[in-house]
Amino acid sequence: MQDGFPKLTTRAATLMMNKKPGLIQIDLDGLWVIFQHFGFEDTSPEDLLYTSALPAFLDLFDAYGIKATLFVVGKDLLTASKVKLLKKAVEKGHEIANHTMNHAEGFSFLPLHKKKEEIEDAEKIIQDTLGVTPKGFRTPSNDVDSQTLKILQDRGYVYDSSLLPTYYGPLLKKLKFSSLRISRKDHYLGRSIYGLAPLRPYHPSSEAIWKKGKMEILEIPITTMPWLRLPFHTSFTLATYQLGLRCGLFNLGYWLLSLTNLPLNFVFHTNELSIPISEEKIKRQLGLNLPLETKQKICGHILGTIKKDFDILTTLEYSRKCTSN
After folding, report:
1. How far apart are CA 182 and CA 178, in angstroms?
2. Which residues are registered as beta bridge partners of 136?
3. Whole-angstrom Cα distance, residue 69 to residue 109?
4. How far is the C-alpha of 211 from the C-alpha of 195, rounded, in Å?
5. pLDDT at 206
6. Residue 2 pLDDT more than 70?
7. Which backbone phi and psi does 83 adopt, to 5 degrees?
8. Are 104 and 64 a contacting pair, CB within 8 Å?
9. CA distance 134 to 126
């Protein structure tokens, strides 16, 4: 390791000479998570968002020959229909990672024992229902801190992929929540200082997780635009599409990325390939209720573009190639 950055193996270096490494990740947030995000309780008899989107994503990944990383909320594994879908994902070779037990917002504000419960309970139910032990983690809403990374490291996790390296998290949070008439005190989309974080995988400092340091766990930051540090993953692309920019945000971010030798860590969410949700309480969010054909077209454009230039790995596979000697 040099300057806190993991030394690449010969095989990983060869991969990079051919195509840059790319990661496709999905936050598998059920309909109840979106209701919770808005401060409501979901009383729907069936999670049509989850059960429509996950099969669609699996079919799309099959079409492009992609193995993705699925960040699973433990609470969803209490539902037999969702377990069945996730078992199919495991059979297809997709990675299962930990996205906490209850998708608790304001994760960095939770007391230590509650953070441990959220991580450990999700880990156990993933093991019990899907037969796999997650080695990767993401906090809800990118609200990560050093205490969380220490818990993960102590439990033997290989990587965290929570940090969004943008200066604009607080501003984007303010714009979004004011338009949705939501009041929340948390670090949704992270802190402004996270804009100083590396755009490559790195071992963070326990004192300042946006800096390289000596922690064993690997931080795999979500890709933002080089230089500009603007997020351009799917939720932002769908929102700006609805504002009339079509796929301009993704295309700009991807073009800037193409000018570098940086890897790509691109994130989707369940609602981005689900049937439209017509519930009045939550449909104010930009991009949430675009027609399904439109979302399919956008997701197909994104994956087709990425697949041409990047060698797609699961996040665990990539992490181990980065850190093995």
Report:
1. 6
2. 159
3. 26
4. 10
5. 97
6. no
7. -60, -40
8. no
9. 7
CB 151 within 8 A of CB 129: no
Per DSSP, what are the bridge partners of residue 96? Answer: 70
CA distance 162 to 145: 9
Q: What was the pLDDT predicted at 3?
A: 37
For position 51, what pLDDT does the model report?
94
